[in-house]
Every structure is written in structure tokens, then in C-alpha cells.
Amino acid sequence: MITAVDTSVLLDVFFDDPKFGQASADALRRCLREGALQVCPVVWAEVRAAFEDEETFLRTLSALGVGYAGLSAEAAALSGEIWQAYRRAGGKRERIMADFLIGAHALRQSERLLTRDAGFFRSHFAGLPVVSP
User: Domain map of the chain by residue range?
Assistant: First the structure.
């Protein structure tokens, strides 16, 4: 099973978030036992920004068994379609395109998504299994 991982879960673990750190670490371990962990370019970039240097970033992701998976053209187009429908339905700009790219990548290129934002992804990405810490 391939699990796409959202930014918040990784940051919870890397920076030992007092509220979510342990639950996110447990969920990551559980998903890794069941298969592979991967992140899309958006998550890769967001997580990289939290580290002082590239070497530490790469070493940390490698130690967790998190791989990089590029975004397919199909997933990118799907994210645009879903974002467009969201905006037409009155969706506020508090949801940015990055959220839709993460969801579309998980839907088209993974088998599930590990995220703390389960409600958003369940409501906008029908058929995407969501795991929440």
C-alpha cells in the first residue's frame, strides 16, 4: 500500500509537536508497516523549508522511509478541476491550490493520504481513503 503523507504530519514528527507529535508518529509507523510512504512536490517543498540545510532534510526523510513522487499531468489537471469547482461553489480563498495538488496526487498516485486535515480531503476528493493520526 502506498500512503501519501501531508506536510502537517511530517512537521508534527520532526518538531515534536506537543499536541499532535505522538499521534502523527504512530500513524506514520503504522502506514510504513503497511507499505511505502511518499510525498508530492508540494509537501517536499513545504517540509524542506522547515530545515536549515538540504543534507539534514534529506537524511531525516530517508530515515523515516519517505520517498519523493513527482506530480503527474493527470493529477495536476485534476487538482485544477477540483479547485475550480470548489471556488464556483463559494469556497473561500483560505484553501490554496497546494491543498488541491496534495489531494489530487494522493488520489491518482497513491492509495491513501495520511493527514490531519481529513475533513477537507474527504469532502473534496471522493474515493480517496484518508488516514488521520
Answer: 2-131
pLDDT tens for each residue of 101-125: 999 999 999 999 999 999 999 999 9
The CATH code that applies to domain 2-131 is 3.40.50.1010
C-alpha cell at 101: 495538488
φ, ψ dihedrals at 6, nearest 5°: -85, 155
Task: Please state, in angstroms and rounded to a whole number, the distance separating the CA atoms of residues 118 and 133.
Answer: 9
Residue type, 112: R
The β-bridge relationship of strands 112-114 and 2-5 is parallel
| Bridge partners, 5 (sequence order) | 114
The pTM assigned to this predicted structure is: 0.92
